[in-house]
Amino acid sequence: MVTKARNIAILAHADAGKTTITENFLFLAGKIKSIGSVDNGTTQSDCLPVEMERGISVRSSLISFHWNNTLINLADTPGHVDFSSDVERTLCAVDGAILVLSAVEGVQAHTETIFRALQNRKIPTLLFINKIDRVGADVEAVISDIRKELAPNIAVLQSVVNQGEGNAGILSRMQNTAVPAEIVEEVITVNDTLLEKYLSGENIDNETIIAELRKSVTVAAIYPVLLGSAKQGIGVVDLLNAVIEFIPAPSGDPRKPLSALVFGIGHDRVMGKMALLRVYDGSIGNRDMFSIAHSDYTCKVTQIRRIFSGKHEEIPVVSAGEIAAVCGLYSVQVGDILGVASDAVPPLIPLHAPLLTVQIRAVNDNDYPALAEALSVLSCEDPSLEFAWLCGERELNLKIMGWIQMEVLVTILESRFNIKAVFDKPTVIYKETPTKMAEGFVQYWMPKPCWAVMRFLIEPLERGSGVEFESRVSVDKIQQKYQNEVERTIPKALEQGIKGWEVTDLKITLIEGEDHVMHSRPGDFVVATPMGIMDGLTNSGTTLLEPILGFKISASEELLGAITGDIHQMRGRFDSPTFDNGKFLLTGFFPLATSIDYPVTLSSRSGGKAKISTTFHGYEPCPDELGVVRPFKGISPLDTAKYILKARKALQ
Ligand code: GDP
Ligand code: MG
Q1: Which distant-in-sequence residues (6+ apart) come within 8 Å of 89 by Cβ?
Q2: Residue 189 burial class via C-beta count within 10 angstroms: exposed 0-12, middle 13-18, buried 19 and up
Q3: Ligand 1 atom having least distance to the Cα of 57
Q4: DSSP assignment of 494-539
Q5: What is the pLDDT of residues 432-485, one digit of tens each?
C-alpha cells in the first residue's frame, strides 16, 4: 500500500484559476521548466485541441508529481456545469479536494453545487481563495459568503495584505503567535472532550488545537481556508503543504481481492482506450486478466501508466490506494468496477443530470454509420450522453448539459473521428407524473401460448420521490419468479409515458392478477407489464414536469427593472434583491426552457457586465401548451397488436 501518497481533485467554477494552480504545482515539483499560461494555450493539463482553443478544461485530467517525498495524484476537473458528470466520477476516486474560489467573484452557484457534493461525500476539502492580486479582490467578503452560503465551520489559516494590487501577499495566522480565538472555537465545538475542558477553564495548548484541527479536517468537520494568487505564484507552496498536512493518505488492502473503479476513460493515439482507475483493494499487474463486476467481460491489461505532466511512465503494478491509467481494457465503460464490487468503492451520486436532449446529424449522408460508431465510443467515455440510435427513424439522440458541450462534441468528432456533424436545436428533457390515482389492467392471454393478468394501482407521489413498487398479490396467484419479472420491467415501462417522456414520482402497486400453470412464461410478464402500466397512466392522466434552475444574477442597479421584467416573462420568480456598492444581487428560479439563451441576452443587455450563474433546482409542473408533448418513439404498448408482435420477437 502507498502511504506516502495523496489522491486529490481540484475543483472550481470556470475561470477561478484551477489550471494555473496546477501549472504552478508542476513547476514547484520540478516537473516543468516554466509555468505555462492558459491565456497562451501552453498549459500541461489542458491538452485537447478544443481545450486550448477555448481556454477551458472539458475532461478531468490526471497528473502526478512529488512534493516533500509524497506522491500527489491530482485530478484537474472541468469547471463548467456542462461537464459535471466528469466531476462527479472523479469525486469517487479521490480522498480529498481543493475547492478554488476567486477573491473577486466569490461563491458562485456552481461553487455551491460542487461544495454540496463534497460535503455529502464527506470529502476533506481545502478552500483556496485565488486571485487576491486582482482589482476588486475582497477576501473578507468572500469569507463571509463562504460562512453564509457554504459552511460555517471553517478555519481561515491566513490573512491578506495589499489585496487587489500587484504586490498582494499573505501572512500565516498560525505561526509564532497563539492560534486565533475563532479557530480555537471552531475546533472545540466539534470535540466534546475539548469543549468540556474549555468550559471548565482549563488551558488547552496550541499543539493540541492544531492536532485536533487536523483530525477534524480529515473527517470534513472543519474546512481550512487558504489564500493566494496562482498567477503571481503566491500561496501555492502553502497550499501544497496543506494538502500533505490535512488530506488523509489513501487506505485499502493490497492483499484483499481486487476492487477498482473506472472513473474516466481517456484516449491515447498509440495505445487507444485508456482507463483511469482507482484501486481500493488488491492490485493489478501488467498482463493480468480481470473480470468486470456484474458483466461477462474479461479483459487483459497491456500497460499501466502514471502520468507526469503530458509524459507518462510505465509502472509494473498499481495497488490499493493508487490511481493510474491502464491500457488494454477495451470493453470497459466509465463506472465499471474491476474485480469485486466491495463496500470500499463509493457510490456514484449524480451532481447534475443532463437536462437537454438533441439530435445530431452527419453533414455527409455517407458518414451516418461512422457517426453512430463514433458516438458509441464517446458514450463509453461519458455514459451520461445516453446515446440512443433509433434505426427506424434514422435518429441519433444524445442527452446533453448545454451549448458548450455540443460545441465540444462537434470539435471532437471532427478532430478525432474526422466526421463533420451538426446538432439540431436541443429540447428540454421533460418528465411526466400521474395526475391522480387510477388503476391499469392487462389481460395478456392471446395469441396463445401466453398468460399474464394483472391490475396495477398508480398513485402520484411528491416531487423528487422517484419510483416505488409494491406487490400485494400473493405468490399463489402470481409466482414469485413472475413477480420478479414485473418489478424488473417497471423502469423500462416508465421510459415513455402518454406524453412521450419518462414517468416519475409515482407509486405502482400490483393489486390483483394471476398466472397460468400451463401457459405462463416469465417473458409474458415482461410483455404485459408495460401494457398494464400504460393503461393505468391513460386512466390517471399525466402532468408534464419541466426542469427548473436556480439563478444568481448580479448587475448594476439601473438594470434591475429590465432584468426582473425578463424574469417575469420567462415565468420565473425571485426573492427581494440585496444592494451593495451600486450593484444588486438577485436570486430566484426560472424554467430551463425559457432561459436557455438568457446568459447571452443578459450579456448584451449589460455590455458584458452582468453576472449570472445557474444550477439545477428540480422538476416542477408545467402546462402542456407551454411544454412539449411528443409522440411515442417506437411502438406504444397501447397499440396492442403491433406491440405484442414486436415484444415477442425481441424476447426470442
Ligand atoms: P480555470 O478555468 O479554473 O482552469 O482557470 P484558469 O487557470 O484557466 O484561469 C482563468 C483566468 O484567470 C486566466 O486568464 C488566468 O490567467 C487568470 N488567473 C488565474 N489565477 C489568477 C490569479 O491568481 N490572479 C489573476 N489576476 N489572474 C489569475
Ligand atoms: Mg482550466
Answers
A1: 60, 263, 264, 334, 335, 348
A2: middle
A3: 4
A4: TSS-TTSSEE-SEEEEEEEEE--TTT--HHHHHHHHHHHHHHHHHH
A5: 999 999 999 999 998 888 999 999 999 999 999 999 999 999 999 999 999 999
CA angle 500-428-16, nearest 5°?
150
Separation of alpha carbons 500 and 505, rounded Å: 16
- Residue identifier of the C-alpha nearest atom 25 of ligand 1: 131
The answer to whether the CB of 12 is under 6 A from ligand 1 is yes
Query: In this structure, are residues 226 and 20 in contact, taking their beta carbons and an 8 Å threshold?
Result: no
User: What is the distance, to the nearest Å, from the Cα of residue 328 to the centroid of all Cα atoms in its chain?
Assistant: 26
Q: Is 16 in the pocket of ligand 1 (CB under 6 A)?
A: yes
Q: How far is the CA of 421 from the centre of ligand 1 (A)?
A: 32
Cα(19) to ligand 2 centroid in Å equals 4
Instruction: Compute the distance between CA of residue 149 and CA of residue 152 in angstroms, rounded to an integer.
Output: 8
Q: Is the distance from the beta carbon of residue 51 to the nearest atom of ligand 1 less than 6 Å?
A: no
How far is ligand 2, taken at its centre, from the CA of residue 79, in Å? 7
Q: What pTM, to 2 d.p., does this model score?
A: 0.79
Q: What is the pLDDT of residues 13-52, one digit of tens each?
A: 878 998 899 889 988 988 777 776 666 666 666 555 555 5
Residue 196 grid cell: 468540556
Q: From ligand 2's centre to the CA of 11, what distance in Å?
A: 9
Tell me the three cell numbers of residue 499. Answer: 406524453
Task: Label the pairing between strands 223-227 and 125-130.
Answer: parallel
Q: How far is CA 299 from CA 89, 259, 393, in A?
A: 22, 15, 35
Measured between alpha carbons, how far apart are the two ends of the chain, in Å?
Answer: 49
Give the position, in ligand 1's atom list, of the atom nearest the Cα of 130. 23
Question: 296-353: per-residue pLDDT in tens?
Answer: 777 888 888 887 656 778 889 999 999 888 888 888 888 888 888 777 777 766 667 7
Q: How many C-beta atoms lie closer than 10 Å to residue 526's C-beta?
A: 20
Query: Grid coordinates standing for 417?
Result: 473521428
Q: Is 466 left (phi over 0), alpha (psi -120 to 50) or beta?
A: left
Q: What amino acid is encoded at 124 in this protein?
A: P
